[in-house]
Amino acid sequence: MRTATYVPNKRNVQGTTTSIFQPDLLIPMTIFSAVGGSRRRLDCRLVFAIVIAILLPCYCTGYPSLQRDSCFAALYAFGDSYTDTGNFVRAIYPSSPIGRPPYGETFFRRPTGRASDGRLVVDFLAEAVGLPLLPPYLAELSTAAAEVWRRGACFAVGWSAAMDAAFFRELGLKNLSWTGLSLAAQLQLFQDLQHSLTPEPGYRDMMSNSLFLVGEFGVNDYQYFLFLAKNVTDVYSAIPNVTSTISMGIKDLIRLGARTLIVPGVFPLGCLPNLLTLFKSERNEDYEPRTGCLKFLNELSTRHNLRLQEELDRLRELHPEVAIIYADYYGAATEIFNFPKKFGFKTPLTACCGGGKGPYNYSPLVNCGDKGSKVCDDPSQYVSWDGIHLTEAASEIVARGVLEGLYAVPSVAETCSSFSM
Ligand SMILES: *[C@@H]1O[C@H](CO)[C@@H](O)[C@H](O)[C@H]1NC(C)=O
Ligand SMILES: *[C@@H]1O[C@H](CO)[C@@H](O)[C@H](O)[C@H]1NC(C)=O
Ligand SMILES: *[C@@H]1O[C@H](CO)[C@@H](O)[C@H](O)[C@H]1NC(C)=O
């Protein structure tokens, strides 16, 4: 039986006192913070004694499916640099700073092409469902064996947007140096791979036994729109295009036979050090008093996420046989920005690694790893790794929020246990 779905860190190995969530959520969380089997049962009994009715079926059966060898035959992921396990750096732009130390220093102890000091949300997801960390498709296309691809692949590429380059050029972004792949282009790569690996009639089985992570998408779309917009609030008008394009991608996967999809919303963009730097304002009222995040960008994220969920509701109605899970990255991350100390974070709006002078430690001219940049001693005390991307510590919290059901609708565990593999 598979036990440790997460490599425990100092935040969660000590059980009851170190829940990473709010006090009212502390009790259920202790179950997952226990390390060994007997501890797990003890916590279970405790919880039973306290709140039998609420927790009965879901927590004390211990998310059985996630403990099994694997609920899914494979995991395929699409998205941008938040999900890219190495495509951008290793196949497209090798001289990117992301390919150099200190990237990767915490977990892999070397740069892997991930835009973080360690693992990404997709890595924690792969571990939780008992699958290998995803090989980057473009980077390992010619070297990895077919068996490897049958268990999963990452098609996410840094700088990708849901929309394609032609769309932005038509809008007037003439000088766009386009290095990512649109969602449609990533889906095409996936289909090419699968048709070569799994000819009919096995194709639909392969699709229905696989888990798909579609996103996050949107961050780069909105960045491009922000370059174009004369008035920053104009960027809200881009939301229907972006969300309907994501929805079309999901439809394509369902048409091909996908039965379980996780679709993340975007993070609170107003809390990213790079955007806080670029859109710095003199007006106090432009910032959320509690978090110091920029209101108009969080509003953008919120509106995108609401619209995306409406699209998902429509798809669920059309395809009741398909599990479409909304992963609320925004909610999980907002928990961190609202209660940073509870999670062991010091200054949640400051990048661990960067060359900025101000409070955010971000400069567009001095990347993390460049001469003149500095890296913090303990990345686990920081939410932002390089001003744009999350630290492993923050990714783990977001992943747990999604996997343990609080920030996923419906819960991943529910979906997984319906698979009897
Ligand atoms: C596009 O880039 C060229 C060369 O960098 C520059 O001269 C030109 O002004 C740019 N055009 C726009 C619309 O930004
Ligand atoms: C931007 O547009 C919005 C709505 O169209 C308007 O309310 C706002 O005042 C504008 N802001 C600026 C700085 O022009
Ligand atoms: C973007 O939205 C506009 C307005 O709704 C629509 O006319 C256009 O076809 C959309 N473009 C794409 C590529 O979805």
From TrEMBL:
Molecular-function annotations in GO: hydrolase activity, acting on ester bonds
InterPro entries, sorted: GDSL, SGNH_hydro_sf, SGNH_plant_lipase-like
Keywords: Glycoprotein, Hydrolase, Membrane, Signal, Transmembrane, Transmembrane helix
Entry keyword Transmembrane helix: yes
Alphabetical list of CDD domains matching this protein: SGNH_plant_lipase_like
Segments traversing the membrane: 46-66
A Pfam family it matches: Lipase_GDSL
SUPFAM superfamilies to which the protein is assigned, alphabetical: SGNH hydrolase
Protein transport is among the record's keywords: no
Entry's family note: Belongs to the 'GDSL' lipolytic enzyme family.
The protein's name in its UniProt record: GDSL esterase/lipase At1g28570-like
